[in-house]
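haha ok so turns out i had the wrong file open the whole time. this is the CORRECT one, sorry everyone. sequence first:
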Amino acid sequence: MPGPGLNAYKKTIKSTTSGRDLEASVLTKAANLLKECKEQWNEEGHFRRLDEALTFNQKIWSIFQGELAREDNPMLAQLKADILKLSLIIDKRIIEVMSNPFPDKLDLIINININLAAGLRGSPG
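then structure:
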């Protein structure tokens, strides 16, 4: 059971993490889950790991889509449109991987997640 110090640290991290940092972290986690799937493709449990990774990716991209579609979203219209286009590419690839799993199909999602996370952090891919 975590002590009061750890709980205070977690609370501080949550309150000081910017939205961009949080989005970048989630995208990086999603990319890393898919990388693990690819690296462990021939190991036991890979279909379970793949399902979990794809489901996680699908959830975060659905959240992004919902946020981008909000009328009060302050993001520039062209940037919103570009990210929505990426989300459609992600959706399509997730369905392709689910219907015909192959490890190299994960690269597109991994690369988009990593590059978008890098952009959110203001660092090169």
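The chain has one domain: 19-120.
again sry for the mixup
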